Amino acid sequence: MSPETARALAEEWFNGGRARSADVAVYAFDDGFVAWARDDEPEDPSVLPATVGGGCIVIDRRTGELAVRPLLGPEFVAEQWPDHVPR
């Protein structure tokens, strides 16, 4: 799977059916891609976000399989990917 195809899949996953599209970030690693929706930067950084927690997706480069993971650093998520199970 190409990075462009992974980005298109991730954008559809995060933005499908939404009135306002979220900016999607993609991190490539050997076995696939980690993608997440980027939140807008708050005007006042002392105000807590409306939503706490979140998730990201991992797209397997070979099969196109998509799996939801906790929103952690993309490098950490990628390191866990061979097991396909969060540790």
What is this entry, summarized?
The chain is of the alpha+beta class and 87 residues long. 23% of the residues lie in helices and 29% in strands.
Name the overall outline: globular
What is the helix tally? 2
- Main sheet record: 4 strands, antiparallel
Task: Kindly give the count of domains.
Answer: 1
Low-confidence stretches: none
Query: Number of DSSP strands?
Result: 4
Q: How much is the average pLDDT? A: 85
Order of helices and strands: HEEEEH
Compute the gyration radius: what is it?
Answer: 14 Å
Helix content: 10-25%
The oligomerization state is single chain
Q: Could you walk me through the main structural features you see in this protein, from its secondary elements to its overall organization?
A:
This is Immunity protein 35 domain-containing protein. The chain has 87 residues and is of the alpha+beta class. It has one domain. The chain is built from two helices and four strands. A four-stranded antiparallel β-sheet has the order 1-2-3-4, sandwiched between helices. The longest helix has 13 residues.
Key attributes of the depicted protein:
87 residues; 23% helix; alpha+beta
SSE topology sketch:
Layout: H1 3-15, E1 23-29, E2 32-38, E3 55-60, E4 66-70, H2 74-80
Antiparallel strand pairs: 1-2, 2-3, 3-4
